[in-house]
Task: inverse folding
């Protein structure tokens, strides 16, 4: 069974064409249903309201954006597409669409995930990743001069087009948590769908002397279970087992020392990752607006596409 059977895609009038091309190309390979949704301000026409004509015009940019997006999907050979223009704010509209269609994945652009103002006031991508109850693919749509945008074609393209081949690569952040394990499972399913390799990355930091002494005093001969690389290596083995159980054929481990976020970004860059897969661990309350979580911090700092697994 494909990793995703129904995918909701947030569409807007300034959305880069390559965002739709990536999603449609991947959907062609798995037969997933695409639900293209555009939010707009205002309501629909009311024959009893003399001003209804003007209010309905606000939907026109959304309708045009959906029409263009649907046409791109058909050009790429994907015809299992629905389009919906819905009045309301984008966050509310897209969350409702995910629930209504039972989507397993929401695709959104990264616009609005950078800068202190967005962290303080929120952004459409940031609010969606905190609230929606499905996986979220954040497609890198800013800074088009960087590597991120041309990766759009790499993941969705035919791997043997023009007689060339390349290795699709999913880099997965791994640690000992339920959502991290689900991220490894999801990456395994995607790798099986798209013949990709999975690179599992675990980070560790040296223990403080007081913590190390306490572990030795408390655990004795078993203190190695919480020292050095042992905990992360155990999590990596568990992640590999889960990825392979979902069909991944090529799985590799990488252990990095130091800050987890820096380590993930370094490996993703070195391996030219198409997608960075993370458990969507979110802080709650006002602190989440200020500092976020590793997953949201990475989303703001990398030009690779990010899959946040719920």
Result:
């Amino acid at each position: 069974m494909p990793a995703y059977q129904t995918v909701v895609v947030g569409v807007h009038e300034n959305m880069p064409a390559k965002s739709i091309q990536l999603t449609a190309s991947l959907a062609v390979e798995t037969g997933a249903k695409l639900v293209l949704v555009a939010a707009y301000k205002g309501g629909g026409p009311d024959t009893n309201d003399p001003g209804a004509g003007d209010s309905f015009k606000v939907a026109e940019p959304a309708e045009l954006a959906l029409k263009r997006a649907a046409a791109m999907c058909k050009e790429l050979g994907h015809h299992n597409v629905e389009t919906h223009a819905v009045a309301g704010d984008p966050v509310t509209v897209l969350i409702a669409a995910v629930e209504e269609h039972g989507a397993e994945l929401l695709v959104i652009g990264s616009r609005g995930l950078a800068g202190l103002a967005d962290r303080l006031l929120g952004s459409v991508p940031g609010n969606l990743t905190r609230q929606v109850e499905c996986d979220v693919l954040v497609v890198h749509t800013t800074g088009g001069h960087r590597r991120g945008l041309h990766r759009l074609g790499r993941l969705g393209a035919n791997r043997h087009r023009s007689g060339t081949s390349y290795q699709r690569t999913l880099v997965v952040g791994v640690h000992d948590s339920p959502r991290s394990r689900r991220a490894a499972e999801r990456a395994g399913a995607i790798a099986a769908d798209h013949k990709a390799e999975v690179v599992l990355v675990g980070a560790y930091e040296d223990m403080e002397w007081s913590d190390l002494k306490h572990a030795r005093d408390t655990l004795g001969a078993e203190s190695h279970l919480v020292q050095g690389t042992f905990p992360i290596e155990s999590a990596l083995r568990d992640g590999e087992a889960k990825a392979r159980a979902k069909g991944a054929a090529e799985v590799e481990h990488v252990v990095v020392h130091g800050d987890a976020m820096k380590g993930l970004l370094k490996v993703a860059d070195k391996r030219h990752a198409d997608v960075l897969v993370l458990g969507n661990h979110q802080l709650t309350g006002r602190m989440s607006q200020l500092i976020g979580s590793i997953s949201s911090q990475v989303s703001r700092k990398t030009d690779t596409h990010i899959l946040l697994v719920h």
